[in-house]
Amino acid sequence: MAYGLDWVLAENAMIQGLSVIVDTPCLYPQILVQGDALARKHGCMYCYVELHADSDDLGLAMLDERLRARVDPLRVQRTTIDEAPRDADTPGSGADAKDASRERFRAMVANPCRPASNPIVVDACSSLDERVDFILGQISAMMSDEADR
Question: pTM of the predicted model, to two decimals?
Answer without folding.
Answer: 0.76
